Amino acid sequence: MKIVVPVKRVIDYNVKPRVKADGTGVDLANVKMSMNPFDEIAVEEAIRLKEKGVATEIVAVSVGPAKAQETLRTALAMGADRAILVQTDDEVEPLAVAKILKAIADEETPGLVILGKQAIDDDSNQTGQMLAALLGRPQGTFASEVTVDGDSVVVKREVDGGLETVKLALPAIVTTDLRLNEPRYASLPNIMKAKSKPLATKAPADYGVDTAPRLKTLKVGEPPVRQAGVKVADVDTLVAKIKELGIA
Amino acid sequence: MKTLVWVEHDNASVKDATLATVTAASQLGEVHLLVAGEGCAAVADQAAKIAGVAKVHLADNAAYGHGLAENVAPLIADLMASHDAFVAPATTTGKNVAPRVAALLDVMQISDILSVEGEKTFTRPIYAGNAIATVESADPKLVITVRGTAFAKAPAEGGSAAVEAVAGPGDAGLSSYVGSEIAKSERPELTSAKVIVSGGRALKDSDTFQQYIFPLADKLGAAVGASRAAVDAGYVPNDYQVGQTGKIVAPEVYIAVGISGAIQHLAGMKDSKTIIAINKDEDAPIFQVADLGLVADLFTAVPDLTSKL
Q: Which has the closest alpha carbon to B46: B193, B155, B134, B189?
């Protein structure tokens, strides 16, 4: 079984984003960029399925600028077999990304597509579900456990009340939650080896997808800022303050 | 504009998240509700009483009993032929179903809206809430998820909408529900609690988390939350997590115990009315957002606080 893993190059999760003064977006100049953390979990899960003998080949895909090659090389260094970069400097919305991924899935016919549940830049949480809809296949979103069982996959999902388990007919789409696994670091020999793994470069037009945005961003602003309050000296003062709030 | 609102329920009663979603939808136009489930007629009757609702569509079918996206998305897509906007709460159910609907309709979804600025213009948080984007949709129909803490709850009583049964395509044959592990708790739910006591990695382990956080929460009638670090370390289950990728909360009072205040955690609680932080590190970022801070070792301060309240 082949697994396709889409990955996105995003601002590193340790960096505090700064809104541009002109209100057009977030300043990404000279900011550390990394693979979206949920996508690392997706790559790791695919590799584990390959190590278990369930998967035979892992194809990493990214839709983004030329520099997204670095993100794909990271996926290859972790253990993906080959990569496809769908190169564009435009901002591509989840719906258009899902359409590109659908075209790739039609070509590659994977048994599973494993994606991060959301990207930490736009926080949309849409691409996996949209891809599942476009392919007419089932979706196991927010996965905390994935077990392939014959021609189906059992997915334990993190839901608001706890956990829910669903059984999906393969091929299926899975999106990862935080506790699915702990992604590995690529070793130096594997980083070297990744440089010679195949990486194909395509364009959205190769897949016949129009990436013109449907949402127009009118403005990006700062959120309301909270002012730091006071530090109290001891527990007794805190007790008095809590009582003033009328909750105890 | 005619809106179709996803009613969040457990086949027995309407969940609170629905009420804030109704408020958001009412700012767009006429509010219709969809109750999709199995044996859920009582939910539809309850939903019909929500103030401001014009009509309730009831799809009662075994295929909709567990809200499987593969089955309910085509039902919603069909109903959207006579509605202009699909509006769902940004719960795990809404997040699962809405994008599938959006793709079926060839619409770009607007996730987690904070406000309605115009007929097609909304604000939404990006970068873990470190920036707020104002976006305008160019699509003929809208698919929206709503951040519950950003809208007032519509009154649960006062309406008298008609309930109309709808059939829908039924089971898509792609997926099935196997089971759930839903924690039963006497405590209030995190997303609707007035007071929340949250613990972080500093709690050390699952036993100490229970021993220090739970009694304080019980004293205040509070819900219990946790940082991602505490959940990842296995102190408490995933449904306790507050943050960018967990639950978004905005209680009257949020008490953060042993939580340093990573931006991903702040994203989930910084709209709380009053934030109280207890942390032994006086430079912890949590103090930059806290209204009241106590620099102290939680293992002595928390029991002391619990006994004095």
A: B155
